[in-house]
Amino acid sequence: MPALPRVVVLFLAALLCACTVSGNQDRFLEKFADPEPKLSAVVICHSYGCSRSDTLNLSRDWASLTEPLRMPALTPQEERERLSIFIASVEVVVGERLGTSGDIGGTFTGFAQEGQLDCIDEAANTTTFLTLLKDEGLLYWHDVRAPMSRGFFVNGWPHTSAVIADLESGENYVVDSWFHANGHPAEVVELTTWVGGWSPDGSQAEQIVASSAEPADLVSPVRAP
Question: Which of 32, 38, 74, 162 is 20 to 30 A from residue 223's alpha carbon, by CA?
Answer without folding.
Answer: 74
